[in-house]
Design goal:
By secondary structure, the chain is an alpha/beta fold. It is about 40% helix and about 15% strand. It has one domain (about 5-160): Ribose 5-phosphate Isomerase B, Chain: A (3-Layer(aba) Sandwich), CATH 3.40.1400.10. Strand 4 (about 90-95), helix 4 and strand 5 (about 120-125) form a beta-alpha-beta unit. Helix 1 crosses helix 5 (about 130-145).
Length: about 160
């Protein structure tokens, strides 16, 4: 996997529901040449709260434009909602399907999340993805670049103003 845009550091965090998939993705990323910073969970505790593992991921990504975040939970939805409360974070949820490959414009949801919205955090629904599907999605998402078009830059700035 080529490290798009010279992104070499990936921050990753998951609760108990995403723990096993996080471990698989972490191994995949390290073998692909990324530096992975694991913010937990470090074991399976059904009583843990995803917020304690997602917050350090998004704080680091918000401060370092040259890093990305991957967060995991059962559906990825709550994790993304929490992540998007932080200034500078643009988290997108993915929980399966081939929609990251192609849509009517030749770009799927993961491509558009990067190309139009400069998403810097990928939230994965661990209960809906196999390890292989998640790895394929991560590889695709990291491979797309932000277009830098003025209208998308402007929209991203408007989103940041809300926080």
């Amino acid at each position: 996997m080529d490290n798009a845009q010279n992104i070499t550091k990936i921050h990753i965090g998951a609760d108990h529901a995403g723990f096993d998939l996080k471990e698989s993705i972490k191994d995949f990323l390290e073998k692909s040449g990324y530096e992975v910073v694991d913010h937990g969970a470090f074991d399976i505790d059904p009583e843990d709260d995803f917020t304690q593992f997602i917050e350090p991921v998004v704080r680091e990504v918000a401060q370092d434009r040259n890093s990305r975040g991957i967060i995991l939970g059962g559906s990825g939805q709550g994790e993304a909602m929490f992540a998007n409360r932080f200034n500078g974070i643009r988290a997108v949820v993915y929980y399966g399907g081939s929609d990251f490959v192609d849509d009517r414009d030749g770009m799927g949801i993961l491509a558009l999340s990067r190309f139009h919205n400069d998403a810097n955090v990928l939230s994965l629904g661990a209960r809906f993805l196999t390890n292989e599907e998640a790895e394929e999605a991560v590889e695709a998402w990291l491979g797309y670049e932000f277009s830098g078009e003025e209208k998308y830059v402007r929209r991203n700035e408007q989103m940041n103003e809300l926080n």
